[in-house]
Design a protein that fits this description.
InterPro entries: Amidohydrolase, Bact_exopeptidase_dim_dom, Peptidase_M20, Peptidase_M20_dimer. Keywords: Hydrolase, Manganese, Metal-binding. The chain has about 400 residues and is of the alpha/beta class. It has 2 domains: about 1-190 and about 305-395, Aminopeptidase; about 195-305, Alpha-Beta Plaits. The protein contains 10 helices and 16 strands. The chain has helices spanning about 1-15, 15-30, 35-50, 110-125, 155-160, 215-235, 275-285, 310-325, 345-350, 380-395; strands at about 55-60, 65-70, 75-80, 135-140, 170-180, 185, 190, 195-200, 205, 240-250, 255-260, 260-270, 295-305, 310, 330-335, 350-360. An 8-stranded mixed beta sheet has the order 1-2-4-3-5-16-6-15, with helices on both faces. It has a 4-stranded antiparallel beta sheet with strand order 10-12-8-13, with helices on one face. Strands 7-14 form a two-stranded antiparallel sheet. Helix 1 (about 1-15) runs antiparallel to helix 10 (about 380-395), helix 4 (about 110-125) crosses helix 10 (about 380-395) and helix 8 (about 310-325) packs across helix 10. The two termini are about 15 Å apart.
């Protein structure tokens, strides 16, 4: 395996043209969460072309699980996501989205291409009797958006049972704040718990010229907002990670009528369950300020993804493999931020880790995730393939 790890870089670079072609095709034809029918069909077609024979389809909707086995040994998983975002692309590239209002603005096109590349190399290794254990490649639908039940793709994958036998899992995510050739890793909580809230404050409407005849919910909301924005600085332990943000306020329809209600919609982010629970409890306490002001309220919490909790041992393995294959690689060790990642559902059940793969070009203005101008440096593609493939080998070699 030592010799294989030394040439995995060259092998990955040899398939760069395939990686670019696959990624650009997927970028050109993006599909939204739970609608990835053609994306799934393309993935299946490429898997068959490269010699994968065990392909399970219809996983959690349009998901695909490709199994490559070299015999007895551990079963491990590699995961990529299929879906795009409801964003109108403004990159101007030749392979820009042909689906109006839909774009791969989070790099899932690159994730799929790199997992296909890993599949190609792993099939070659199987044929050469260099593969031990079993590797399941999960092409997961609906990472970005939840359905009417409030669930994204990962919970449905877990419920399906198709990865119940996986002993450990790895995923990657492209990273526009790191250059291609660098990676970012972190042990433990690395992306946030997500809880979205809707708070409706009920008052009593009245004519704007006679405010004393009603109970103004907009006035009440001013106290609620002050409480929300002071929550982190005055109620939470400053050594803990957590935040609250308001993204939408809805009330009233005209200048001279005080409305009956105000609706405040926002999000809570945290790294631990203790902070998650405290944020929810504190929000409830803040909402109660309207009661002595002659108001009432309804508070609804929508629980989203759990925190991405990276297994320390698997993170160490990723770091070790990266240093071996790319001795000059810069490896940053810090959390990935307060965004959400539904791979957290999987790491909650199975030891796993995600690493962030630099995809920025030097001397080029950073294009951020979920933005209409987002674009990756395709030099990152073979690097991701090499790391995924070699990490898969190392995990299946474990006794």
């Amino acid at each position: 395996m030592q010799q294989e790890s030394l040439d995995i870089k060259a092998r990955s670079e040899m398939i760069t043209a395939h990686l670019v072609d696959w990624r650009r095709h997927l970028h050109r034809y993006p599909e939204l969460s739970f609608q990835e029918k053609n994306t799934s069909a393309f993935i299946q077609a490429i898997l068959k072309q490269i010699g994968v024979t065990d392909i399970q389809t219809g996983v959690a909707g349009f998901g695909v699980v490709a199994t490559i086995s070299g015999g007895s040994g551990p079963v491990i998983g590699l995961r990529a996501d299929l879906d795009a975002l409801p964003i109108t692309e403004s990159t101007g590239v030749q392979f820009a989205s042909e689906h109006p209002g839909i774009m791969h603005a989070c790099g899932h096109d690159a994730h799929m291409a790199m997992l296909l590349g890993a599949a190609k190399l792993l099939v070659e290794d199987k044929k050469a009797n260099r593969l031990y254990g079993t590797i399941k490649l999960l092409f997961q639908p609906a990472e970005e958006s939840a359905d009417e039940h409030g669930l994204t793709g990962a919970p449905y994958v877990l419920k399906s049972g198709v990865i119940n036998d996986i002993e450990s899992a790895i995923a990657l995510h492209v990273c526009p704040w790191r250059y291609a050739g660098d990676i970012q890793v972190n042990k433990g909580p690395s992306m946030a718990n997500i809880d979205n809230f809707t708070l409706v404050i009920h008052g009593k409407g009245s004519h704007g010229g006679y405010p004393h005849q009603g109970h103004d919910p907009i006035w009440m909301s001013s106290f609620v907002l002050q409480g929300m924005y002071s929550l982190i600085s005055r109620k939470m332990n400053p050594l803990e990670v957590g935040t609250i943000s308001v993204g939408e306020i809805k009330s009233g329809t005209t200048a001279n009528v005080i409305p009956d209600t105000v609706t405040i919609i926002g999000t809570l982010r945290s790294y631990t369950n203790d902070v998650r629970n405290q944020l929810i409890q504190e929000l409830e306490s803040i909402a109660k300020v309207v009661e002595p002001l002659s108001g009432s309220y309804d508070l609804e919490i929508e629980h989203g993804e759990p925190a991405l909790d990276n297994d320390p041992a698997i993170t160490d393995l990723i770091t070790s493999v990266a240093k071996e294959i790319y001795p000059s690689m810069t490896i940053f060790e810090e959390p990935f931020g307060m965004g959400g990642e539904d791979f957290g559902h999987i790491t909650k059940e199975i030891p796993g880790a995600m690493f962030f793969l630099g995809c920025a070009k030097e001397n080029i203005k950073e294009s951020n995730l979920h933005n209409p101008d987002f674009m990756i440096n395709e030099d990152a593609l073979p690097i991701g393939v090499a790391l995924l493939t070699e990490c898969a080998h190392r995990l299946t070699e474990r006794s």
